[in-house]
Amino acid sequence: MKKLLNTLFITQPEVYLSLDGDNIVLLKEKEQLGRLPLHNLESVVAFGYTGASPALMGYCAERNISLIFFTMNGRFLARVIGKSRGNVVLRKKQYRISDDEIASVQIARNFIIGKIYNQKWILERMTRDYPLRIDVTQFKDVSRFLSAIIKQVRLCDSLETLRGLEGQAAINYNKLFDQMILQQKDDFFFHHRSRRPPLDNVNAMLSFAYTLLANDTASALEGVGLDAYVGFMHQDRPGRVSLALDLMEELRGVYADRFVLSLINTKVINKDDFLKKENGTVIMTDEARKKFLKAWQNKKQEKITHPFLGEKISWGLVPHAQALLLARFLRGDLDEYPPFLWK
Description:
Elements: E1 2-4, E2 7-10, E3 16-20, E4 23-28, E5 31-37, E6 43-47, E7 51-52, H1 54-62, E8 66-70, E9 76-80, H2 86-98, H3 101-129, H4 136-155, H5 159-174, H6 201-223, H7 242-265, E10 274-276, E11 282-284, H8 286-301, E12 303-305, E13 312-314, H9 318-331
Parallel strand pairs: 2-6, 3-7, 6-8
Antiparallel strand pairs: 1-2, 3-4, 4-5, 8-9, 10-11, 12-13
Helix pairs in contact: 3-4, 3-5, 3-7, 4-5, 6-7, 6-9
């Protein structure tokens, strides 16, 4: 149980939620795990719950406290609310901003600042931890270049320019990605990003990680009442979770890239975990995906200190924290959306 931004996160599995007076009570096999007053909560988020009492649902609905349910793997199930007050206002604000390029770029550039900042500190961490195994001069040069790009992003006033700056940063960061692969170099290498289809083992892993991250981020956005399909930087396209792709930008490197590198460098995944089709497409085997998913769930349980909130949370709650902060900004509770800045 974790309270964050007036939201209660319940991450223990098989917990039943009930009401006692003005308190939410957490029960597991009739044993009380915890209780918390509801009067200062805006929402309750439960992962892998076993049920919620009608009394609790009614209490929350009357007081505009959202009840949001996810599977233990983070897949969004449902959001239970009372009269559509705040949710409608929030989405209308999201849609208005999405249709206004000037307003959109003011939010989108913070997503990209977060992405480039985190890429920079991935490189800096490598120079600190593995100075004898990488070209430190190259890494420092790219780090300085990324710092300069961030300054340009801060002043950017168009989405086209923003996408160009993000592209420059990505090209330079990707040039060093192969050096960050420290083990199994004969079987794992990165020359460039190939998406549809992935043409090597590393790209197959990156594509899978980005898909998982996009799903987690989309679920987090739905949980706070935002429309995951209406973005600010990524243009609307039927079936594409554009806002999730926006929000996950700042987490791509620090969350997904580092995760893939760790699986390679610790040899959790090896060359036997891949199949190459006749058209050159490389895919992971079923067994490899199982190992990947198990490690992904373990990663989501690791604790970090959130750089803006200053509180310890699990990695798995980071997309939810950022979705909450974005919703707070859109409601006018924050002057600016604070990206996730890792160091």
